[in-house]
């Protein structure tokens, strides 16, 4: 894609989204180290109300948990009664504490104003959890985020990888594109 066309699309996108964040421009300038993955994409909210369109999620956070740490993560949630029998990853709902996050989260980030995110991760197998920023404010020292759900395991190859997520009444899902 030509430089002028790419710039035109970016300007058009920023006008439509009512604001543009500097971080969007910086995403294209990332240098990926050997064995690392530059994981980026968008998160869409899918409404179950007919006639409601898809909306990009701009107020939340995403956390990546490696498959090696997933059993520890699951055991911790089971001990807190946050993971009940029959609950799937897609419908997990819990408050992620700083203590647990420090033990299991490989990387996390907030979405920008266009609903985009970017994470740098070693190539490997991950579960991704989507949530809201810690609220209320007085809980911010204890909780990292309120999780809506997590994906099933996704395989992330080295290099630049696009992973888009959706969440709604059907839970959280993700796809490597």
Structural summary, described in words:
The chain is of the alpha+beta class and 177 residues long. 21% of the residues lie in helices and 42% in strands. The chain has helices at residues 3-16, 22-27, 70-79, 98-104; strands at residues 36-46, 55-56, 60-66, 94-97, 105-110, 116-122, 124-133, 143-150, 154-156, 159-168, 171-176. The strands form 2 sheets. Strands 3, 4, 5, 7, 8 and 9 form a 6-stranded antiparallel beta sheet that branches. Strands 1, 2, 6, 10 and 11 form a 5-stranded mixed beta sheet that branches. A hairpin with a 2-residue loop joins strand 10 and strand 11. It is globular and about 40 Å long. The two termini are 19 Å apart. 26% of the residues are buried.
Compact summary:
By secondary structure, this protein is of the alpha+beta class.
Q: Which helices and strands, and how do they pair?
A:
Layout (H helix, E strand, L loop, with lengths): L2 H14 L5 H6 L8 E11 L8 E2 L3 E7 L3 H10 L14 E4 H7 E6 L5 E7 L1 E10 L9 E8 L3 E3 L2 E10 L2 E6 L1
Parallel strand pairs: 1-10
Antiparallel strand pairs: 1-2, 1-6, 3-5, 3-7, 4-8, 7-8, 7-9, 10-11
Structural key phrases:
177 residues, alpha+beta, 6-stranded antiparallel sheet, 5-stranded mixed sheet, 21% helix, globular, disordered N terminus
């Amino acid at each position: 894609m030509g430089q002028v066309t790419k710039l035109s699309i970016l300007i058009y996108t920023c006008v439509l989204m009512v604001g543009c964040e500097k971080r969007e421009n910086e995403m294209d300038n990332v240098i990926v180290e050997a064995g690392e993955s530059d994981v980026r994409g968008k998160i869409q909210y899918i409404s179950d109300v007919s006639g409601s369109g898809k909306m990009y999620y701009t107020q939340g956070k995403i956390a990546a948990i490696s498959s090696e740490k997933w059993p520890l993560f699951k055991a911790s949630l089971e001990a807190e009664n946050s993971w009940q029998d029959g609950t799937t990853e897609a419908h997990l709902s819990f408050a992620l504490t700083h203590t647990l996050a420090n033990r299991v989260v490989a990387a996390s980030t907030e979405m920008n104003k266009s609903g985009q995110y970017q994470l740098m991760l070693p190539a490997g197998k991950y579960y991704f959890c989507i949530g809201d920023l810690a609220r209320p404010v007085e809980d911010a020292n204890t909780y990292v985020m309120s999780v809506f759900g997590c994906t099933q395991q996704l395989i992330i190859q080295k290099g630049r990888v696009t992973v888009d997520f959706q969440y709604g009444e059907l839970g959280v899902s993700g796809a490597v594109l």
